[in-house]
Amino acid sequence: MSCHLNANRSIQCTVTQCKHHCDAENYCSLEQIQVGTHEADPTVKQCTDCMSFDKK
């Protein structure tokens, strides 16, 4: 599925397993995303998560 018409150029993404990923481009097709954490005190970027992720 190519979504070049829906690619949000403000949200770069390389997670190809997400249904919102634009297959031909490294962008998200959502208008906005929510970023969260799985840590009580996040200190590095690996502690953050895209809460808008939906598995293909």
Structure overview:
- The protein has a two-stranded antiparallel ribbon with strand order 1-2.
- The chain has 56 residues and is mainly beta.
- The mean pLDDT is 93.
- It has strands at 8-12, 27-28, 35-37, 48-50.
- The protein has one domain.
- Helices cover 0% and strands 23% of the residues.
- It has no helices and four strands.
- The chain is elongated, with a radius of gyration of 12 Å.
Mean pLDDT: 93
Strand order of the largest sheet: 1-2
End-to-end separation in angstroms reads 11 Å
Q: What is the number of E strands? A: 4
Count of helical stretches: 0
What keywords describe this structure?
56 residues, mainly beta, two-stranded antiparallel ribbon, elongated
Task: Provide a quick synopsis of the model.
The protein is mainly beta and 56 residues long.
Fold blueprint:
Layout: E1 8-12, E2 27-28, E3 35-37, E4 48-50
Antiparallel strand pairs: 1-2, 3-4
